Amino acid sequence: MMAFRCNANFLSSVGVLCLGISTAQAATIQLELPGTLDRQSVSYSCRSGQSLSVDYYNLPESSLAVLSVAGAPRVFVAVLAASGAKYVSGPHVWWTRGNRGDLIDETKPDADPDLCKVTR
């Protein structure tokens, strides 16, 4: 079930970002942030065998990534990174560099990250 009733309404000075999360109890988030919104969807194939579809929402001062972790959609927020783009959501980190992404669970420090490559 997808509860997503948000117009893709972009004003010249304000980007309206709408995220529809598909779950048993759906939620809609609407953020009005300055700048023009750039949305991209990228598919990844991971070493664990899973396929990830990641939606990136980029504004001049804010960036988000939405992807599923353990079968549930999660919103990741961009944070400072030495290289590439690093996003966090709770204990999970999604770190992209070039056409590679690493999914890390920081509650398991001895576990190797799930290495993923762009398939588009």
How would you describe the overall organization of this protein?
The structure is a single chain. The chain has 120 residues and is mainly β. The chain has a domain at 37-118: Beta Barrel (Lipocalin), CATH 2.40.128.200. It has strands at residues 14-21, 27-34, 38-46, 51-58, 63-69, 72-79, 85-89, 92-97, 100-105, 114-118. Strands 3-4-5-6-7-8-9-10 form an eight-stranded antiparallel barrel. Strands 1-2 form a two-stranded antiparallel ribbon. 15% of the residues are buried.
Number of discrete helical segments: 0
What low-confidence regions span 5 or more consecutive residues with pLDDT below 50? Answer: 1-16
Strand order of the largest sheet: 3-4-5-6-7-8-9-10
CATH architecture of the domain at 37-118, please? Answer: Beta Barrel
| CATH fold assignment of the domain at 37-118 | Lipocalin
Strand tally is 10
Can you identify the CATH superfamily of the domain at 37-118? C-type lysozyme inhibitor
List the helices and strands and how they pair.
Elements: E1 14-21, E2 27-34, E3 38-46, E4 51-58, E5 63-69, E6 72-79, E7 85-89, E8 92-97, E9 100-105, E10 114-118
Antiparallel strand pairs: 1-2, 3-4, 3-10, 4-5, 5-6, 6-7, 7-8, 8-9, 9-10
